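If it is no trouble, can you show me the amino acids of a protein and the tokens describing how it folds?
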Amino acid sequence: MTSLPRTIHAEDPAEGPVDVEPGGGGSSPGRRHRWLAAGAFGAAVAGVAVLGSRFSPAEPGTARWYRSLDKPPFQPPNAVFAPVWSTLYPTIAVSGWRVWQAEDQPRRRVALGLWAAQLAANAAWTPTFFGARRPKVALGVLAAQLASTVAYTATARSVDRPAAILMAPYLAWSGFAGALNEEIVRRNP
């Protein structure tokens, strides 16, 4: 008596060559790769959040410095920031993941590079503003983050429209943060 092979080699039009377990019912490596990628995008964004939390104004020395700054009247209460970022970070991760899942094409690769660039700039802002206490330099970092986010969103739109739409709240918040950062720089020469 012969047994069935443990793995069947097949060609999936969307995934390329795949190995499928007999009777696996669609549990292909492609599907597993999608979930691993989702986890990787989530982990990248979570890493940025954790990095930012290490330089928060909750640290006593940073809190004194931050309280001493002349801030504009449209400065939101500190309690607003955590819920806002807790909403924005998942949308940033899902947007990047959706673009990653799209058909491989040059614009997809450009979009993913821009996604990484905006996330790197996002990661740099909090250590620059709060850690180094350099609001003027942080404003430059924020300008780079906003530019790369706009470029990512525009490029992502041609790859996966929902991915671009997911970035709208982040773009709005980043614009607001830019105005706030600029005003802090202006008021604290």
Residues 1-10, 18-29 have pLDDT under 50 and may be disordered. The radius of gyration is 21 Å.
